[in-house]
Amino acid sequence: xxxxxxxxxxxxxxxxxxxxxxxxxxxxxxxxxxxxxxxxxxxxxxxxxxxxxxxxxxxxxxxxxxxxxxxxxxxxxxxxxxxxxxxxxxxxxxxxxxxxxxxxxxxxxxxxxxxxxxxxxxxxxxxxxxxxxxxxxxxxxxxxxxxxxxxxxxxxxxxxxxxxxxxxxxxxxxxxxxxxxxxxxxxxxxxxxxxxxxxxxxxxxxxxxxxxxxxxxxxxxxxxxxxxxxxxxxxxxxxxxxxxxxxxxxxxxxxxxxxxxxxxxxxxxxxxxxxxxxxxxxxxxxxxxxxxxxxxxxxxxxxxxxxxxxxxxxxxxxxxxxxxxxxxxxxxxxxxxxxxxxxxxxxxxxxxxx
Length: 354
Known about the structure:
With 354 residues, the chain is an alpha/beta fold. The chain is built from eight helices and nine strands.
């Protein structure tokens, strides 16, 4: 006969029901799982800016459509049809920086915006024109001259600097740990040179797969610099549930993905626990956790279906109640569930016929 353990006091006796697997998951339909998230600070009428990897586009779009005070410092010009906004990088994020995949890229974007870092390489050749190495796919066709690249970049970086001044909350989705950088000055690019402009030269560029200490250091440096500009800035972090399209490491792509997401998730969790002005929303866990049976991914098991985005945002809006009135000063591009601009998709073609 099994003996009843003696009644003693310990921390688990005071834990809420959500702390126990049996209460949360066992015998619970996946879509009925609750208590994913409890906000650290309210959004309310705060001015919200977004940046990050491809999945972050969903978050910004939902915030706009639900009437939050969404910041857009580089709005589309009036003459451009909404159907073409995304082709030119408008409406993706709060500025036309395109996808920002790594914390190092985000930190350097900030440093460039406040004139503290000027990369030695300022343009890439592409066809008969030129592109900005730090947002090479921001327009459908290359610029006709280097001067044109510089004019657009100067306006863009001035807008980014303004974004940090006027925003109250910065939402960032961490996407990757792999990046390509310049050996000469450490500048990090959103894509590998040669895939969307420029030419790859192993003497000029190298792969880096950022470690936990590096990612954490970059994020903390970003927080510190932005709060020097705007001492009241708060940050909301998420981790993209979208796996790597390809890896440049010797690892198999699933293994490489697990490393990358594990590092990013660990850093985001640490930062949210350490700093009162940093919150973490678990979109990564809601989509990719095994308890969800993979139901939120499209057949490619990589891209997130709209039903998954909807479920994620339902959990978010349970805590951050959308305003009653829809915002009247923010416009959105014409989109459907497939309309995400992802530079990483370029890598898929290089795996064909292998």
